[in-house]
Amino acid sequence: MNPDVSPAEYVAALRDDVDRLAACAESGPLDAPITACPDWDLRALLVHTGGVHRWATQAIRHAAPPTSLDGPKPQPDASGDDLAAWLRDGADALAEAVGATKPDDDTWHPFPAEQQAWVWPRRLAIETMIHRWDAEVATAGESSLDPTLATAGLGEFFEMMLPRVLIREQATVPDVSLHLHCTNDDVPGGAGEWIVWGEGGEYRMEAVHRHGDAALRGTSSDLLLVMMGRADVSTVDLRGDQGAVDAWFALPGL
């Protein structure tokens, strides 16, 4: 957990991004293709995002795996205005559920991390920001990420999301090391750096500055887009062994 960002701040960021997603829904077109998710158009992305919010709300409220979503999904031919309203309703319910919990309350989630409620606000804020970026690129041709939230997203990626992929896919962890270094002026000293490596087939990670076999340097926004498959690794500064980078990016989900 990033102690510098409160659950309320994550929820505020999420609601801002939901408003921007809703604006994409209202302006359309709903059949705009989502480049990072080739099987999706804008409508599918909006339904997915609103569904994730409702699914997580159930997990937060009941501290158990969700068995259903609160309320029906939008109709297949729902208008952009209807989808926008549905997204905002889901964000309202989610904000209420987060506000009714403490960070160390018990919860359920599917990630390799402690089963405490602090996981959810960060996870959902980052998920929503990435899909808002997808939607704006699809409808307006360009977008951006909040650098503070992007830094939190990189920490979450290495702490929780990448380990989940490795476990789910039973993937072999590369025995070479990869170091990421955020170059943002707003990243405090000692933060915004991670190194990952394999040791005896096990995943290892430290949030420290240490030279690896290869390093990727860039703003937190650029680095997160690379790690999330939204930008090519050539968009950031690569130093060291190209083979080490290739080994990590050959993993499923990268």
TrEMBL record:
Domain Mycothiol-dependent maleylpyruvate isomerase metal-binding intervals: 12-135
UniProt GO molecular function: metal ion binding
N-terminal signal peptide: none
Superkingdom of origin organism: Bacteria
InterPro entries: DinB/YfiT-like, Maleyloyr_isom, MDMPI_metal-binding
Pfam families associated with the record: MDMPI_N
GO cellular component, one term: plasma membrane
Ranges in a coiled coil: none
PANTHER family registered for this protein in UniProt: CONSERVED PROTEIN
Protein name: Mycothiol-dependent maleylpyruvate isomerase metal-binding domain-containing protein
Species annotation: Ilumatobacter coccineus (strain NBRC 103263 / KCTC 29153 / YM16-304)
